[in-house]
Amino acid sequence: MTATIEPEVGKSRRRKEDERLITGRTRWTDNIALPGLLHMAVLRSPFAHAKIVSIDTSAAKSAPGVIAVFTGADLDPDGAIGMPCAWPITPDMKAPRRPVLAAGTVNFAGEGVAVVVARSSAEAHDALEEIDVEYDELPVILDMEAAIADGAPLVHEDLGTNTSAVWKFDSAEAGTGGNVEDAIGSAEVVLKRRFRQQRLVPAFMEPRACVVDPTGTQLTMWSATQVPHILRVMSALTLGIPEHKLRVIAPDVGGGFGGKIGVLPEEMMSLIVAQKLGKPVKWNETRSETMLAAHHGRDQIQDITITATRDGQVTGLKVELLANLGAYNGLVGPGVPILGAFMFNAIYKIPAYHFACTNVYTTTTLTDAYRGAGRPEATFAIERIMDELAVELGMDPMELREKNWIKHEEFPFTTVCGLTYDSGNYEAATEKAKQLFDYDGLRAEQARRRESGDKVQLGIGISTFTEMCGLAPSRVLGSLDYGAGGWEYASIRMLPTGKVEVTTGASAHGQGHETAWSQIVADQLGVAFEDVEILHGDTQSSHKGMDTYGSRSLVVGGIAVIKAAEKVVAKAKPIAAHLLECAEDDLEFAGGKFTVKGTDTSTGIGDIALAVFAAHNLPDGIEPSLDSDATFDPENFSFPHGTHLCATEVDTETGRIKVRSYVCVDDVGVAVNPLIVEGQVHGGLAQGIAQALFEGTEHDDSGTLTTGTFADYLLPSAADLPSFTTDRTETPSTSNPLGAKGVGEAGTIASTPAVVNAVVDAVRQFGVNDIEMPLTPMRVWHAIQHGTTDAGGPGRSEAGGGLGSIDASGGAQ
């Protein structure tokens, strides 16, 4: 057997899964075709808030190809089924029951009210038009501040309020810092700003889908999900299905970005309907349904107060959030702002901190995790207000950051939130970014343009960030009332021919797990990269796991793989000693071989696997198996960081924006596959820049989503974005043996404030200190003309950019 010569970890290998994905030689959920398969289509409410007076399904039932039509009363006659929420953030959190299908009242435009089952998808969708629903409209509640005002109409009458919960953290009470009110009272400078995080659509490539086969004694569900293990557990709890009688498979999944982390009403419908009819059923979402009824992300109002001395030392930070949950609680939606609570202090040594978040119900689609989940919102707020504070103090914004950030020699550093950052070097990442960006040269050019009155002004934006990755220690999650742990599982099977099968509880949806895990195992066991097969996404072959979200796959799931590999080596050692007729202590393992120290006598791990298979010559009392598994529960989060710099040119006569230069230097610890890291950063940058310049949902006064297609919701392509200059520094994490920190969300978290800071910097001389995202040409032009825009200002009804928003040279117009 040939051992791997060079280490695999650190090698830029092309992803082994890409060939089947790119050529279409794979299986998505909607490709599943079973004998007798029936198709479901969901009738959705056109109203944001209304009582259902009556539903007449008689015509639909007699439509061509229709097998059955169900209403909420049919699927859940006792009104006992409610969609799960795994994160009740406070003991007194008010949580409405979300039915599988609306019964009595619809609470957002797009909520399902009936389902048609037919022999084809086309027939099912045609029959939806035959269902007659009479509605009695109710007041819509769209604005968060209006929703919590006295006398406001209620989304859920039985709750008696539109406030779900109020969650607070105070450093003085927690004993991790000082009192914010004292800091405000004694501060030389007190600066307040309000920032708006608009609502976004995850817009994954593959729409949601599920297929349920009730044949035999076990239910099998295929779902385009990020969380097959969580989906299995939650489905069993929600519907009372014995967990061992339910198998969930996530085949290849076309993206998620948090948008496929939920447990869906449509998945529950499919399970119920398949059992009722005794036939396999499929539901495949249309793109319009994705925009309308899949969960949305972000949607916060952030009131930020920062205090400082006149020479730029930050003394306190106060954060007050309103977070829009939509009409219901998502699976982890209530806790998303809480993840951000620990990141508003970012990389800075802030002595006093207070955070309060009010979660609010409105008659809109629910919100839940979207790439970064709380951390992009926090990073945006702190990086924006650091720029505003620099202006107030007359300092260069980079100088202000350097004055307040944690120095590399101060790690490990316990923050004002009580988290311990284990490693980092903000100085090194920033210095490299400034050199690549030519920071001083661009500042000089900016000054020349301002002095000359150039109609195209140059702006420079900074984002120096960190994030908490590897969602993560189970005890910490338990202290936050999260409904599950943060551990991950893996197993390794040594086959008789020396090949290796690895099962992992981390369920990939585009991250490259099969490649990275193969590299890790190749190094750990000394086998060839090509000899490793990764199995995932099937609760039968990978029977337990906590799945994929929160940049946890590598730093938790990858470590579980390492732990399992260590057990394989430990099991093989006494067998190797027996075969080589030496003591175990005389053996060393490297490059896939056990070698007697000081000799060239050795045996390979593959040879041992074959000997174990034969079991002809094993030590007494040794079982004939090298197979091993491991569950890893990290002791801490990991904390990647980086410096992102953006230069924008803004045409002051038209509001046209061009992203001229974008440089980022990220520190993600040890990179298992730099090529995958580069891809993750590029994808993250695209989504973060898209929030700044292009994307945003809008509703009209009746609560109707007016950005329900890609004609109205501007999703940029690669042609709409600039070229990126990316690089890395490396300070290994100390919380895991790989030294990895996570990279999946870094680009999204850091890029949005960098771009907005750059645009505001370009037009600040016109009295502008903020522009609401997305920064459309109209909003930028209006800000130049009138000083600024706010959450209710002109341009609010624009659909994510509108006509003329694309610059062919790679920026926003």
From TrEMBL:
Keywords attached to this entry: Molybdenum, Oxidoreductase
Oxidoreductase in keyword set: yes
Region of interest: Disordered: 788-813
Example GO molecular function: iron ion binding
Domain annotation Aldehyde oxidase/xanthine dehydrogenase a/b hammerhead: ranges: 23-139
InterPro entries: Ald_Oxase/Xan_DH_a/b, Ald_Oxase/Xan_DH_a/b_sf, Ald_Oxase/xanthine_DH-like, AldOxase/xan_DH_MoCoBD1, AldOxase/xan_DH_MoCoBD2, AldOxase/xan_DH_Mopterin-bd_sf
Cofactor entry: Mo-molybdopterin cytosine dinucleotide
Biased composition (Gly residues): 790-804
Signal peptide range: none
Annotated Gene3D superfamilies: Aldehyde oxidase/xanthine dehydrogenase, a/b hammerhead, Aldehyde oxidase/xanthine dehydrogenase, molybdopterin binding domain
Name of the molecule in the record: Xanthine dehydrogenase family protein molybdopterin-binding subunit
Organism of origin: Amycolatopsis iheyensis
